[in-house]
Amino acid sequence: VQLVESGGGLVQPGGSLRLSCAASGFTFNIYIMSWVRQAPGKGLEWLSSISPTGITNYIDSVRGRFTISRDNAKDTVYLQMNGLKREDTAVYYCVRGDRFSYPDDPRGRGTQVTVSS
To answer: Residue 111's pLDDT is what?
Structure first.
């Protein structure tokens, strides 16, 4: 299993970023995929999941601002982040798993998102 995140960076409050996660080494289109994050000094926080058929769910703090999507033809999952806030600063990880199993599921190395003026 290999998951490689990209797209992070430094953005001003209110800005947008689109994260990507390229998956390989497994049959991507049969797995729920999720995004989680870890803010400085805090534990992993589940953000959003998407089923193989595109059913999505979100934690309340990002619903309406973040959008998860996937392209099964490209074995890639995305996270569009709009209206970013300083408290969104964290390392963002792609996970092969759902909102309950994510702490123990395979994840990538992460991509840093910093929201600052």
So the answer is: 98
